[in-house]
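# nightly structure sweep
# worker-07 picked up a monomer target from the shared queue
# config: single-sequence mode, recycle default, output format = structure tokens
# input follows
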Amino acid sequence: MGTGPGIVSNLLSELGHDVTGIDASEGMLKKAQSNSEALHNPMHLIQGDGEVLPFDDSSFDAVVNRYVLWTLPQPEKAIAEWQRVLRPGGRLVIVDGTWFDERDRTACRQLWRSLSLILIMLTERRMPCYQEMDKTIKRDLWSCNMKRPDHDIEMLTRLGFRDVQLRDNLNRKLLLTLNHLKHGYGGRQFLVTGVK
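# output follows
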């Protein structure tokens, strides 16, 4: 879901999976197609809405999305639709983060952000450019107003997913120490999975 330039789709294809990627953006699908061809990874790409999928019930063994759910206006509707296309025993995988959660904007994180600017200038020889999200968008965006990943777990549980699991603080586990110091202030990344 939300394949974008095909980063996760290509990783899954390289692991031997039959991949279908869907994205609302024609431009992103063109980039995903180009990347898949360059990497010689076969996949089927479709332009569409992640909340209204053009697939039959029980069509897929897994539904995977990375940095998508936080942007959707009706997250529970999207998850229900992803559940619909999963086969019984199929797995939903959500990778997302708390980038715009004001509860994570502590004084320590603000100081960390300021220090990260210096680290980026010294190590990457560039001036970082940050832009705050529009306050109106932030106010209306569900992911800025809910405690995550707790809310994600509640949605999966409410929809009847089994074996719901959380792996939290992925950025600390995945980023090398220097990259974590430069970019880790922005929020926590997490992975939530559930079985239909």
